[in-house]
Design brief:
The chain has about 200 residues and is α/β, with parallel strands linked by helices. Helices cover about 30% and strands about 30% of the residues.
């Protein structure tokens, strides 16, 4: 059965989600990546939109203006690891509940998710057009001086996903665990292979 959560979220909404779980989001979604994270965590700026309990999508959308309104053409995820440097401070300052992107994030982010009750999720790569179809409306744009890809787009969605939990509120990191698992199996396989060659 498809699980859909409505934004904004509280701790109870996501505390039961575990690394590997799949769900969808409904409500207001904002984009933000390197420059947005840097402004908040490093430069001490306050976000022009309140994302307490909300979700931020690490994406650089292609947007066109049509009939005095903005329209999403495509919106695929960018690599979340690019935000690792600032993510812990960003989570602490903004109280964001869900970060969405491509690939995993590191231990610093996992620790912040554990401390502040946040999660990181993966949106499937290569689905930029699908993502655009899941955005019903662009409601606002902030920090346009950063450019189309880096500024903050505030969007409305009824069903955005699938989102795969990669870091849960307990700090369990799916990508890190999988990396450790396959590394240990690779080492064991190499040992077995070397035994046959002796």
């Amino acid at each position: 059965m498809k699980k859909t959560l409505s934004l904004p979220l509280c701790d109870d909404d996501i505390s039961g989600l575990h690394a590997g779980d799949v769900f969808y989001l409904c409500g207001t979604l904002v984009t933000g990546r390197d420059e947005v994270y840097k402004r908040v965590a490093e430069d001490g700026k306050t976000l022009p939109v309140d994302i307490n309990g909300m979700a931020i999508y690490h994406a650089g959308p292609i947007v066109r203006e049509a009939q005095a309104q903005y329209e999403i053409v495509s919106i695929g995820p960018t690599s979340s690891i690019r935000m690792e440097k600032w993510a812990a401070e960003f989570i602490e300052k903004t109280k964001v509940k869900v970060m969405i992107g491509k690939g995993g994030m590191g231990e610093k982010t996992a620790a912040a998710c554990r401390e502040y009750g946040a999660i990181h999720c993966v949106y499937p790569g290569g689905c930029a057009v699908l993502g655009a179809g899941q955005i019903n409306k662009i409601e606002n744009v902030f920090w346009p001086e950063l450019g189309m890809a880096e500024c903050i787009w505030v969007m409305k969605t009824v069903e955005f996903g699938p989102l795969i939990v990669s870091i849960d509120t307990q700090g369990k990191n799916l990508f890190a665990e999988n990396s450790n698992f396959y590394s240990s199996h690779r080492e064991n396989s190499m040992k077995l292979a070397s035994n046959f060659l002796i």
